[in-house]
Design a protein that fits this description.
With 276 residues, this protein is an alpha/beta fold. The chain has a single domain (81-275), classed as Ribokinase (UDP-N-acetylmuramoyl-L-alanine:D-glutamate ligase, 3-Layer(aba) Sandwich). The chain is built from nine helices and eleven strands. The strands form three sheets. A six-stranded mixed sheet has the order 3-2-1-4-5-8, sandwiched between helices. The chain has a three-stranded antiparallel sheet with strand order 9-10-11. Strands 6-7 form a two-stranded antiparallel sheet. Strand 10 (186-193) and strand 11 form a beta hairpin. Helix 2 (55-68) runs parallel beside helix 3 (83-96), helix 3 packs parallel to helix 4 (120-130) and helix 5 crosses helix 6 (157-169). It is globular. The model has no long low-confidence stretch (mean pLDDT 98). The structure holds 3-hydroxy-5-(hydroxymethyl)-2-methylisonicotinaldehyde. Residues 9, 11, 16-17, 40, 43-45, 79, 107, 115, 213, 215-216 line the site of 3-hydroxy-5-(hydroxymethyl)-2-methylisonicotinaldehyde.
């Protein structure tokens, strides 16, 4: 069984970051090790939250992994909260990344806006970290912040291709933009693989709703798919379908929470799709 490690925060309530990565990647049939970067009472979209930084743990934990000879088939990073964490994660890639697929979801913004606590300078530094990745998974807002580009709501295929090429010129081998939509009612990913010069994309139904945490759900399903042997386009297509299924379950729940999605009810679909 493949073993990955995911580096991101624990938001105790909120259905994001580690509380979705762990169950989703585990359900995909992949051992999921974690390196928590912080413990928050909830994610930062709640009106109030606590934040206990765990930056100081990253190096001693990594040192101990190395002493024990532990290795990983993939390293997947999500929400990272400080410049120091970016540096420590970069060091982690250098130590453990040689035989691992490095997947970076540069979580920091959506809908044209940076999340609470992030700055354009952080986005520039995140772009540097992304140079070490086999795959980066920004949404359009994150891509624009990393490229120092004005965010725009309307775009065409040639604009998306140019963003992707510029993202890979920062160093990442592959960049996939998430949440890409060229027509009403359809949404999906657009991937550029600089190792082959090929583009690929996949779209499915776009629901008239938007929920917090879907980026983490998407990235986790993609990592699970990759580790189960799917190629990059197929793993990303699985992530599109799984995210849609999570949203459908959420919409159908009259008692749905205002945060996160009902990914729990969609896990059987992920398991079934990865059954060999
Ligand atoms: O879902 C991304 C995410 C992860 N972790 C924390 C967040 C967010 C988005 O706001 O606040 C703490």
């Amino acid at each position: 069984m493949k073993r990955i490690i995911t580096i991101q925060d624990i938001s105790c309530v909120g259905r994001c970051s580690l509380t979705v990565a762990l169950p989703i990647i585990s359900a995909a049939g992949v051992e999921t090790a974690i390196l928590p970067t912080a413990v928050l009472s909830t994610h930062t979209a709640f009106p109030k939250f606590t934040f206990r930084d765990l930056t100081d743990e990253i190096k001693p934990v990594s040192d101990t992994f190395e002493e024990l000879g532990l290795g990983f088939d993939a390293i997947y990073t999500g929400y990272l909260g400080s410049f120091e964490q970016l540096k420590l994660v970069s060091d982690f890639f250098d130590r453990f990344g040689e035989n691992a697929a490095i997947v970076i979801d540069p979580v920091m913004a959506d809908n044209g806006q940076l999340y609470k606590g992030f700055t354009p300078e952080f986005a520039a530094e995140m772009a540097k970290l992304c140079s070490k990745a086999d795959l980066i998974l920004p949404n359009l807002t994150e891509a624009c912040f990393m490229l120092g580009e004005e965010y725009r709501e309307s775009y065409d295929e040639s604009y998306i291709r140019s963003l992707l090429e510029r993202l890979t010129r920062l160093g990442a081998k592959r960049a996939a933009l998430t949440g890409v939509s060229f027509e009403d009612g359809r949404i999906g990913f657009y991937l550029y693989d600089s190792t082959t010069g090929k583009y690929s994309s996949y779209f499915n139904e776009k629901l008239p709703a938007s929920y917090h945490g879907t980026g983490d759900i998407f990235a986790s399903a993609a990592v699970g798919g990759l580790m189960r042997g799917l190629d990059y386009p197929d793993a990303l297509a699985l992530a599109v379908d799984f995210t849609l299924e999570c949203m459908k379950k959420t919409m159908a729940d009259p008692d749905r929470r205002f945060y996160g999605v009902n990914f729990e009810e969609a896990l059987p679909m992920l398991v079934e799709r990865l059954q060999k």
